[in-house]
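subagent[fold] <- orchestrator: predict structure for attached chain, return tokens only, no commentary.
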Amino acid sequence: VANHLNSLKRMTKHQDDLDIDRNLKILCESQNTSQFDLTNFINKDGRQMHSSNESKAFARLMEREGLIRMFGDFCALERFGLEVFNNGGWLKHLSDHNTNENELELKQQEKEDLELQNLKLQNEASEYQKSIRTKETQIRNLTRDNLRLGNWDIRFRWLIAVITFLIGFAIKYVIDK
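subagent[fold] -> orchestrator:
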């Protein structure tokens, strides 16, 4: 049911757009665009809207779009309405507007993708810097340990040399006696 209602709304909107395009042309090509009788609008069947309610409802639709300004049973063409007509009509305006919106959406999506990619690269760079700091700390610790072991090795050799000297001295003293 909901899909059917949405389909009907799209069809009605499309029909409204066709009617706006057709009647904008009629208004712009009329003799008096500043005091156009609303009953001169044409409905979807190509007949004049003789019903005041039908013509006013349609005129309110065009007024909401900014194409005309209503006053009683008459309307006047707005500057925007004339621009739309001169640029190819209501349907072309909608097409151009949709194209611009699609381009903006694509640019926005591309911008978001680039920002996400940038954040990922920044995160990778941060992780890399963190690993470099960790490796540098490990190198410093290993260098310190290596120096400490080297110092112990030197001390141990000196100790062995001193002990060997003392043992040699003691042996010579015992042999000489």
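orchestrator: received. Logging for downstream: The beta strands are 36-37, 68-71, 74-77. DSSP finds four helices and three strands in the chain.
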